């Protein structure tokens, strides 16, 4: 027997549950299908537990360095059982809250693996659920490289790293993107010897090159090793761990290898292709309104090509729910999505890089300004180095903001408003930024770009 809903959502991660909550809020009947746990990768195996681990590492570093500010403290040991308990407690609290939200919204929640068996029907646990609209939100999985098999013990992915009962004595991290540098940063703070291997010429290659240079400079000071422009060749098991061979025949040995080469779309065996959904390399292809080629079938989150970020999927879910409800929301601009990498130092950016701006507007039509955090009082107190880089269209709005420094991720909110509302430097310069805060650095950078630098050289 088939039950019919206004919206049937396949996947309960950030994109799926946001669709469900907003659709229910708008008076639509909703069924949400999830094979694992509500909240998806982000809540259980990604964003939240990773940041809890990074915070534990931050506390460890602060304890080691406390004497620099006159506090006598001693780091006795890293109790990974305690760290994991703290991490799991954060996740459990958020999970319970999310379950309550779904229940109170009167969303029909179906646990089990769903398969698209017709363009408007999903089968789960032998039950067929019909949707006047279908939303595909099946998320992503940790990728590996051809011939590189994960064993979950010595050759691991991020989800395995989050359940380790110890801090590895040494680790090789394959991949210098967001996931790789975050784990390298956390493990180093917790006491591991870490080396990153990256095939591209620089760490965090998707960021502005100035950001990469500063991160690499700081990682060197922290003792985090990295090999860039060095593709992986092979891994061998040894008595004590793994031996990794990289381009040029160089070998590295460590207790374990973390494979952090990105995430792939979790669309296999979901029935999408069988029902005629247009796919490319496993991704679901949509238009700017997140419609697939099938009528009334949408896709959101990591299965849609673009930035694989929880808040992107969340925003897309709201967008799709409002579209289905006939509200005609404005399409999401991909470049306007804020991005944060939670290393020490943190990286935060929104908009386009200097190179992208020059390609779009012409080299002579772009202006940039780097405001060094050395002139920012709060950053001096925190003992961090970094900068705020602004990219603007000459005589036009700010089109990119790129920041690096301790806790700088907290400043990405205003940066997002500046870029997405197409603010001119003079308009931001006119706003009063509280002193002493790192937020002042944004204000000072815009003052300088507007032609009136105070705590900066023009």
UniProtKB/TrEMBL annotation:
GO terms for molecular function: dihydrolipoyl dehydrogenase (NADH) activity; flavin adenine dinucleotide binding. Gene3D superfamilies: 3.30.390.30, FAD/NAD(P)-binding domain. It is found in: Cytoplasm. Binds 1 FAD per subunit. NAD(+) binds at residues 175-182, 198, 262. Keywords: Cytoplasm, Disulfide bond, FAD, Flavoprotein, NAD, Nucleotide-binding, Oxidoreductase, Redox-active center. FAD binds at residues 51, 114, 138-140, 302. Disulfide bonds join 42-47. The keyword Disulfide bond applies. Residues 337-445 form the Pyridine nucleotide-disulphide oxidoreductase dimerisation domain. Its cofactor is FAD. One of its GO terms (biological process) is 2-oxoglutarate metabolic process. It catalyses: N(6)-[(R)-dihydrolipoyl]-L-lysyl-[protein] + NAD(+) = N(6)-[(R)-lipoyl]-L-lysyl-[protein] + NADH + H(+). Residues 5-317 form the FAD/NAD(P)-binding domain. GO terms for cellular component: cytoplasm. The active site is at 435 (proton acceptor). PROSITE patterns: PYRIDINE_REDOX_1. Signal peptide: none annotated. Its EC number is 1.8.1.4. The active site is a redox-active disulfide bond. Belongs to the class-I pyridine nucleotide-disulfide oxidoreductase family. This is Dihydrolipoyl dehydrogenase. It comes from Catellatospora citrea. The gene is pdhD_1.
């Amino acid at each position: 027997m088939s039950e019919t809903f206004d919206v049937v959502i396949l996947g309960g991660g950030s994109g799926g549950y946001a669709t469900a909550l907003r659709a229910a809020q708008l008076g639509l009947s909703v069924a949400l299908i999830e094979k694992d746990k509500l909240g998806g990768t982000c809540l259980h195996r990604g964003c939240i537990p990773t940041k809890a681990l990074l915070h534990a590492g931050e506390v460890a570093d602060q304890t080691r360095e406390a004497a620099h500010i006159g506090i006598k403290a001693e780091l006795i040991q890293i109790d990974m059982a305690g760290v994991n308990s703290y991490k799991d407690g954060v996740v459990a609290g958020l999970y319970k809250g999310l379950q309550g939200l779904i229940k109170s919204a009167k969303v029909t929640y179906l646990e089990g693996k769903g398969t698209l068996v017709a363009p408007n029907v999903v089968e789960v646990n032998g039950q067929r659920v019909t949707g006047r609209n279908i939303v595909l939100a099946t998320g992503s999985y940790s990728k590996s490289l051809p011939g590189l098999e994960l064993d979950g013990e010595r050759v691991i992915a991020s989800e395995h790293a989050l359940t380790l009962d110890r801090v590895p004595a040494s680790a090789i991290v394959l991949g210098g993107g967001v996931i790789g540098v975050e784990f390298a940063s956390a493990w180093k703070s917790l006491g591991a010897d870490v080396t990153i291997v990256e095939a591209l010429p620089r760490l965090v290659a998707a960021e502005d090159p100035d950001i990469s240079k500063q991160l690499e400079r700081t990682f060197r000071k922290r003792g985090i090793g990295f090999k860039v422009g060095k593709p992986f060749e092979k891994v061998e098991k040894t008595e004590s761990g793994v031996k990794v061979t990289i381009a040029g025949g160089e070998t590295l040995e460590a207790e374990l290898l973390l494979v952090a080469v990105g995430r792939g779309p979790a669309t296999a065996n979901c029935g999408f292709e069988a029902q005629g959904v247009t796919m490319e390399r496993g991704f679901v292809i949509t238009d700017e309104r997140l419609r697939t080629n099938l009528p009334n079938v949408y896709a959101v989150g990591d299965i849609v090509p673009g930035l694989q970020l929880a808040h992107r999927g969340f925003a897309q879910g709201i967008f799709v729910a409002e579209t289905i409800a006939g509200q005609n929301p404005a399409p999401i601009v991909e470049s306007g999505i804020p991005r944060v990498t939670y290393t020490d130092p943190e990286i935060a950016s929104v908009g386009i890089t200097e190179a992208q701006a020059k390609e779009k507007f012409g080299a002579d039509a772009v202006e940039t300004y780097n405001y060094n955090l050395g002139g920012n009082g709060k950053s001096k107190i925190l003992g961090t180095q970094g900068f705020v880089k602004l990219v603007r269209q000459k005589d036009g709005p700010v089109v990119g903001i790129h920041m690096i420094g301790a806790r700088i991720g907290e400043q990405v909110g205003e940066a997002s408003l500046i870029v997405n509302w197409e603010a001119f430097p003079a308009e931001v310069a006119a706003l009063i930024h509280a002193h002493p805060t790192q937020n002042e650095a944004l204000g000072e950078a815009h003052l300088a770009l507007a032609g009136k630098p105070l705590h900066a050289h023009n």
